[in-house]
Write a structure and sequence with these properties.
There is one protein chain. The protein is of the alpha+beta class. A three-stranded mixed beta sheet has the order 1-2-3, with helices on one face. The radius of gyration is 13 Å and the shape is globular.
Length: 85
Amino acid sequence: NGYRINFATISEVISSKIDVNLFLKKKKNKIILYIETSKKTGNTRVKIKKIINDNLEFYERPDQIKIINKFPTLESGKIDNKKIK
């Protein structure tokens, strides 16, 4: 709809409020937020949703939040976004 979405800004806002590893991906015009955590997913998901709703504009909010125990990585240590589904 003409809104400019900056994944770095979204990541910074969430990371500044809660200590989690996260990865944002755009898929079919939807923003998907992947969170790496081994903690209870229900509590983390509620905290993330509150942070998102309180600090991001409606057009910056991820459409889906997915919890992952461990991000798949390449040999270089970077996140392998092809394996994240």
